[in-house]
UniProtKB/TrEMBL annotation:
SUPFAM superfamilies: FMN-linked oxidoreductases (SSF51395). GO terms for molecular function: oxidoreductase activity. Pfam families: FMN_dh. This is 4-hydroxymandelate oxidase. CDD domains: alpha_hydroxyacid_oxid_FMN. The keyword Chloroplast does not apply. It comes from the Bacteria. PANTHER family: 2-HYDROXYACID OXIDASE 1, S -2-HYDROXY-ACID OXIDASE-RELATED.
Length: 358
């Protein structure tokens, strides 16, 4: 990786506590999937069309609860105040000012109400989604959902790839298993069954099922997207059970170190969903051309995780803006080079395997 994103990552490595840098950069096991998410894009090439472009290109996408958004989202990543003192507030302002949907996480170090308010103060039209892990106690999940609704979030993103926490060898080596003193997952404060005024731990449960999703579906009118879908059969089930979108994701290689790269899993999920709901992707997106490849293969939009944290660590709000603007500018440039007048002109025939047919 070179360019703005690599410079942000290098700066982040210089300024961050090494254990937190490793927590962000690292992944599960031998980190094969972390590497493969990026390498999979390197294995794909764009096959441009000529003499059919436009000087002005339409790059906006319609997402659940976010019409006219940019095709790049801020994927949910935990603990932004460990990257920069302004934490999630800086990320929210940067996303809002670039027209990018922010998916703020249950594991944020700033409460969702404050994050959403900061985004709207920067741009009243800003869309913020809330990511959650379904909790084993339905009343805890419901309380989190009500907080997101009250905060004005326009969609929920339920992460389903984490029945247990990934085995992250860097974190085990570094002893990075708890937040340092003075930081907390603020959305987890004052929840049912938890200590008053204090935070509960986020639970991951292998006992969750499609019934828990059905309960959530009934508990809220907000659009619900499922994040962490790789198998086409699960994508089909998600649509049948009322999901408003699926996110093809392997959690940035942080959960199972033996799964396919996100972009390699995308086409089968797109085929299974068959246009019924938007399909998003995250994992390894580092260039505007990666955005173009993903949209050509059927994604409606893509999320970026680590690059946003690197930008935040490198320069707070301005650093995140630089990262997002670079990706969006590169994407628009890639569209021009492919002879596309907008996202709608991207199609699977524009993507081939590097060195051979797809
Ligand atoms: C530091 C870090 C924290 C993350 N925290 C969460 C989280 O709290 N919830 C979640 O669903 N995904 C989380 N993710 C996964 C991201 O949402 C996303 O799937 C992944 O980062 C995409 O890959 P990329 O980093 O290569 O862009 C986290 C990823 C990182 C790097
Ligand atoms: C049990 C702590 C939950 C934090 C979740 C952060 C996360 O998903 C990650 O990949 O790290």
């Amino acid at each position: 990786m070179t360019g703005v994103l690599a410079a942000a990552r290098d700066r982040a490595r210089d300024v961050l506590d090494p254990a937190f840098y490793d927590y962000v950069a690292g992944g599960a096991g031998r980190e094969r999937v972390v590497a493969d998410n990026e390498r999979a894009f390197d294995r794909l090439a764009l096959l441009p069309r000529v003499l059919r472009g436009s000087a002005v290109r339409d790059t906006t996408v319609d997402l659940p609860g976010a019409p006219g958004a940019a095709p790049v989202l801020v994927a949910p990543t935990a603990f932004h105040r460990l990257a920069h003192p302004d934490g999630e507030l800086a990320t929210a302002r940067a996303a809002a000012r670039t027209g990018v949907v922010l998916v703020t996480g249950m594991a944020a170090t700033t409460a969702v109400a404050e994050v959403a308010a900061a985004a709207r103060a920067a741009d009243p039209a800003a869309a913020v989604w809330f990511q959650l892990y379904l909790q084993p106690e339905p009343e805890v999940t419901e309380c989190l959902v009500r907080r997101a609704e009250r905060a004005g979030c326009t969609a929920l993103v339920v992460t389903v790839d984490s029945p247990v926490f990934g085995r992250r060898e860097r974190d085990l080596r570094n002893g990075f298993t708890d937040l340092p003193a003075g930081y907390a997952a603020e959305n987890m404060r004052d929840l049912p069954g938890g200590p008053p005024g204090r935070t509960r731990d986020i639970a991951m449960s292998p006992a969750l099922s499609w019934d828990d999703l059905a309960r959530l579906r009934e508990a809220t009118a907000l659009p619900v997207l499922l994040k962490g879908v790789l198998h086409p059969a699960d994508a089909r089930l998600a649509v049948e059970r009322g999901a408003d979108g699926v996110v093809v994701s392997n959690h940035g290689g942080r959960q199972c170190d033996a799964v396919p790269a996100a972009v390699d899993a995308l086409p089968a999920v797109v085929a299974a969903v068959d246009g019924r709901v938007p399909v998003l992707l995250d994992g390894g997106v580092r260039r505007g051309t990666d955005v173009a490849v993903s949209l050509a293969l059927g994604a409606t939009a893509v999320g970026v995780g680590r690059p946003v944290v690197w930008g935040l660590a490198a320069g707070g709000e301005a650093g995140v803006r630089q990262v997002l603007e670079e990706l969006l500018d590169e994407y628009d440039h890639a569209l021009a080079l492919c002879g596309a007048r907008g996202n709608a002109d991207l199609a699977p025939d524009l993507v081939v395997r590097r060195g051979g047919a797809r």
